[in-house]
Write a structure and sequence with these properties.
By secondary structure, the chain is mainly alpha-helical. It is 61% helix and 5% strand. Strands 1, 2, 3, 4 and 5 form a five-stranded mixed sheet that branches. Strands 6, 7, 8, 9 and 10 form a five-stranded mixed sheet that branches. Strand 7, helix 35 and strand 8 form a beta-alpha-beta unit. The chain is elongated and about 120 Å long. Its EC number is 2.7.7.89, 2.7.7.42.
Length: 1004
Amino acid sequence: MSPSTARTPGGRGSLARLGFSDLEAGRRDLAALERYGPPPPDALLAILGRTADPDAATAALVRLLEAAEEAREGGGRVLHGELVDDEGFAMRLLGVLGASEALAEHLVRHPEHALELTDPTLGSTRPPAWALRADLLRSVGADPGDDLPVSTSPDAEAVDALRVEYRRLLLRLAARDLTHDVAVDDAAAELADLAAGTLEAALAVARVRVGEQHALARLAVVAMGKCGGHELNYVSDVDVVFVHEPVEGASPDAATRAATQVASQTMRICSEQTGEGTIWPVDANLRPEGSAGPLTRTLASHEGYYARWAKAWEFQALLKARPVAGDRSLGQDYLDVVTPFVWTAADQDGFVEEARAMRRRVVEHIPARDAERQLKLGSGGLRDVEFAVQLLQLVHGRADETIRAPTTLSALADLTRGGYVGREDGEQLHRAYAFLRTLEHRIQLHQLRRTHVVPDEEVALRRLARSMGYFNDPSASLVKAWQGHRREVRRLHEKLFYRPLLTAVAQVPGTEVRLSSAAARTRMTALGYDDPEAALRHLEALTDGVSRTASIRRTLLPVMLHWFAEGPDPDAGLFRFRRISEALRESPWYLTTLRDEGEVAERLAHVLSTSRYATDLLEREPRGVRMLLEDLAPRSAEDVGDEMAATASRQDGSEKAVRAIRVVRRRELFRIAVGDLLGLTDVADVGRGLSRLTDATLQATLDVVARGVAAQRGLDEQPARLAVVAMGRYGGFELSYGSDADVLFVQEPVPGADPAAAAGFAQAVANDVRRLLAQPGADLPLVVDADLRPEGRQGALVRTIESYAAYYARWSQTWEAQALLRADAVVGDRGLRDRFHALIDPVRYPADGISDDGVLEVRRLKARIDQERLPRGADPRLHLKLGRGGLADIEWSVQLLQMRHAGRVQALRTPQTLAALEAASEAGLVDPDDAAVLADGWRLASRTRNAVTLVRAKGGDELPRDVRERAAVAAVLGYPPASTDAMVNDYLRSARRVRTVVERVFWE
């Protein structure tokens, strides 16, 4: 397509296909290029179409040609001719102009630098560090061959020249990076070399500023962080530590003053603003004592500090220390002094806790508005990879010098080769880290600003995506790729620990080289075990012997230990694993299943280290481990009921039959709990699953007990039909793990039966059902609570339909009508259940709705409950049921809507809270946004309540105060490690929003 075509109306589509956004401006800019030569050929236009921002590239090119023409007559035409004739030059120049506004501005100021990109070797050759150093020293008039280079240019001229030269070299790198598929670690290494040469040139200028006094001290600049690790960003603070020694004959004090002045001036030269801008700040805050300490120290002073005062994170920082400027011999002496300290960091008490706390502090200080777009510090970001790699290096590098590389990707490769990271995990993490670093480079390159936040503006996101090579639906494609890599990093960050722990921790008998007991304890501590001595005892017990079982356990344990360490309580996980393993020592399928089915072993480790509730169920029946191979979705009441009935039919007597029914129930509770723990089952499905399991349990038990009572009484036929009405959370399909089963018992004499005999029979059946399901035993009891019946505990346990009808007609109170909103006759005789529903519907769904007095009564009762029912000492903010914004607030609000409107709104006639809330929203009774707040709040409170029970193995309506239990609850809810505060804050935020809606909906 020629520009003349582009200027025609039909050319607008062609420009759009090339990626132009402002078609009119694009046409004008393309036309303006013709002032310097013939119309751009199709090849040049195609190159424009592959730039990050064709509009910006074309506009910047016009400005560049104008600047070149102003600088030298004919300069614009020369540059234009090079563009047309040299496709490689065009690709590099336009690539830079489209991706970097800052470098485009530099080229406009210095158009002669554009021809740097005609260098045919630019795309294939990375300049050596010595060449970059020499170019930068020459820019300030210093001789690169001198042992102590000194600038010979006037100060202001030297400082400006350094900036111009730095940008010239940066331009060459950016052009190669953008257009020649340079590996991100190569680009980062070149940036670090460029920074080292800049520091050397700044030292040359600083020596002139200080004068002859500079010669009183030898001064070395040691790079830290990304510069030290040869993995610098395009724009970053350059972290350094200064070290000096007096020259022979100089006083220590004078040498210190001189070295401090040179160091201080070096930092200023790099960071101060001039007519040519700035370079980057030099940050010396990683030095001993940070900003409060002296800017430079002698070797002895550094050694004394690290020997006595340094913290674990300071040794971690030294992992990347590298002499880059000044006296290299002195810099190497510094490394020789401090390196031994690095490899003792993991020996410090609380090393793992301190490392985790440091990571937590970093996450907590991310501004909320940037948290989800933080590329460096956020969850699944660069720091997660770096933190994991460095932790593995510090823990294992003491004994293995092959994994001490300071560069993240090199260290990751070494760790993978050494077996510390699995091959697939290492490859995935390498790809994710390289992607994230490339994305970071492209973000910073645009304006050469220090930022790690992925933009959310469409224009910026589109430019960024195109700079990464996404041209088809660029923004969406980039976000999808980024989020995918984030998920992988987040997952692998939690997983990365030492894999072959066999000889290092368990001290397995054999000929292998083993760590000492002290080293094994250190390894367990580094993995997060609080009691490494006990952990080692468990490992020794599990791996002792030469049997096949011991051999398989020795194969399993290295992986299992890491999965336990990913849970909130690794010690408990290992201890429980030992107990399960001992219980199944005679079951050959157990260990082979764990060995051959990795998902089963991982699921088991997660359950054991997280949930006392699920572990208790498993310990009662260890063969439940087999279930981890199965689909963990809750089963239907019909399927479970059929199994219970079949199991019960093979038993002699009601007691044994009900025990068999409870065995099935226990196993299904384990299925539901594990599905919940693994995040496979939604909270609403958990409630439905537990309720259906209770349906099946009650139905099977009712059938068994009714037959048993009839047999005991010598009856050929049962004299009464029976039904069980689910109430409360059970009736609403919303049971939690710690819930009782609230019920009403209904009976109806069969035709011809004596009413008294029928009543006695029904009473005996109801009593036995409750007794047999609640009695202590190997299986969790099911408490069947009938206190919501008419007249409460003083009333008859079982009533006929007629008795219920008479009571509700004459005596029923508002709260009882409210309780009936969640009544659902689910067990027993179908006809009796239907008749009971027909009886209570007019009571709970009055045609004209509840009266104003009734509304006041409901509100008064709620206020009374709020004041009286909250347990003493409970925090009303964190009580999940009765606290402000808790479950009771939500459920009472929904129930009041039902009492007022269900008589005319058919969809409100449901015992389920979420279904009723949705119906109220669709009927216009609740604002959709308010309904969403209540629904989200209900789901969060219900999930949290379930999580508390899963962790503690007993019901709990309040968030635990114990730190470890609270962390375990957060883990069950899917929060990453060290996110307990985030969990609490999320709940408090949800409860506040719920309370605001409740004030409007319930209290008006």
